[in-house]
Amino acid sequence: MSFDNPGIAQARLAPERSGRRPLQDVALRRVWALVLAVTASMLWLAPAQADQAGPAAGAQPPSSLRGLDTEVQSLKQEVVDLNRDLFMLEEELLFPANTQVAVFVSMDVGTFFGLDSVKVLLDGREVANYLYTQREAEALLRGGVQRVWLGNLQAGAHEMTAFFTGKGPHGRDYSRGATMRIEKGPGAKYIELKISDRAAQLQPEFVVKEWE
Known about the structure:
By secondary structure, this protein is of the alpha+beta class. The protein is 34% helix and 34% strand. Strand 5 and strand 6 form a beta hairpin. The protein is flat.
């Protein structure tokens, strides 16, 4: 189960995005302008059609009214589909596969640790800082995987550090960090921040690892 977008309800601190380029901004503004124009046309058309049908509604058979409602619902669905396609296009423009890096958070069991927040540093620079609600943390425990950051990274060696804050054993405040050196090459790279239980030591374990 994945909930990266719209994700775990809504972030108190939204995942950071980086690497936007001027030409990409121009392309996105043009696409957004087109979407807004189409959306406005659809929203204007539906009430206009309803007004035209209103005065003679008493003389129209029920099938005509059902047909009008179906058309309005169809227009709404087209707007939803268009927004979804736009979101996918935006990610392709802003985060090309050759430079893309995505960081995900997952939890396993959670007996010895209750998650409050995650902070991610890349080469010493903070790129994400996410504060979880109880509902969001429970979603992770049920098998959810959250994308906490998506950005661009140049080829070469980099260091990623994740800090986890929450409640540890016996309900005490608990904060730990995990660091990993990553090698960015061609193609997208996916990093998982995994929180699990180390039953033998009765302690939580925090791991930063690459998805193969």
